[in-house]
């Protein structure tokens, strides 16, 4: 995928692939950073349990593609995940045998339907239909591949920005709005240091994301513009003292 992006950029800039491109360097940095963030033992284990990535159809789409059991980086992280998830050596050996049968299409995984369905069926469905011969891997696949994708982190940022830059208060310059979001987010992080965050009616208040009403007629009397980024009623009751106050001052200066 990264090579395709590089080719597209260099073609647009009318450069050879061995030439230097400032734009490509910036894009490459973003892509590798995202890959490094997702290159964890748990992600690699989930990648290794996706039957689609072993199918001949998927591997044939790109010459550079490898099956998970042939990728060195993925294999190392997968082993780390198995080591942590199955600390017992005998149990871990059983899991490794199950994985070898799964990845190499051996025993029950070698039938025509099992191999054919790898590319067609959804991963979770495939494991439900064909994974009973590897019970430990099947349970792990249900846990990892059954996790829903979520944009809650992005939505949390959007709701914060929407709270600050509402239809009524739409004349804030972009830099001012960004600064308010920055301060608001820092206050959220600092609130996790208080004891009230760990216990009480507002404990773990930000785990499920946040959603604020815009400054409509009902809320205008309650919030003043200068307090816009500081008020989350009943949620950000944070007691700062000593070092914490200094940290707030430093961040506000930024």
Automatic annotation (TrEMBL):
InterPro entries: HATC_C_dom, RNaseH-like_sf. It holds the Pfam family Dimer_Tnp_hAT. It comes from the Eukaryota. SUPFAM superfamilies: Ribonuclease H-like (SSF53098). GO terms for molecular function: protein dimerization activity. Residues 118-187 form the HAT C-terminal dimerisation domain. This is Uncharacterized protein LOC130500390. It comes from Raphanus sativus.
């Amino acid at each position: 995928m990264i090579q395709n992006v590089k080719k597209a950029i260099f073609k647009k800039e009318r450069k050879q692939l061995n030439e230097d491109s400032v734009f490509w360097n910036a894009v490459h940095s973003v892509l590798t950073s995202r890959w490094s963030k997702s290159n964890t033992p748990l992600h690699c284990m989930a990648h290794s349990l996706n039957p689609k990535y072993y199918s001949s159809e998927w591997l044939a789409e790109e010459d550079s593609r490898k099956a998970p059991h042939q990728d060195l980086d993925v294999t190392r992280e997968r082993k780390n995940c198995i080591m942590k998830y199955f600390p017992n050596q005998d149990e871990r050996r059983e899991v490794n045998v199950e994985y070898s049968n799964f990845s190499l299409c051996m025993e029950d995984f070698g039938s025509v339907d099992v191999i054919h369905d790898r590319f067609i069926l959804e991963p979770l469905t495939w494991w439900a239909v064909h994974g009973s011969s590897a019970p430990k891997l099947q349970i792990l696949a249900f846990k990892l591949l059954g996790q829903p994708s979520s944009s809650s982190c992005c939505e949390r940022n959007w709701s914060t920005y929407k709270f600050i830059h509402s239809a009524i208060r739409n004349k804030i310059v972009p830099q001012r709005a960004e600064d308010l979001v920055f301060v608001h987010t820092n206050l959220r992080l600092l609130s996790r240091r208080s004891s009230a965050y760990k216990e009480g009616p507002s404990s773990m208040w930000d785990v499920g994301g946040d959603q604020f009403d815009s400054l409509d007629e009902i809320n205008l009397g309650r919030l003043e513009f200068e307090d816009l980024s500081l008020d989350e009623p009943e949620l950000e009751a944070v007691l700062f003292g000593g070092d914490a106050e200094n940290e707030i001052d430093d961040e506000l200066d930024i």
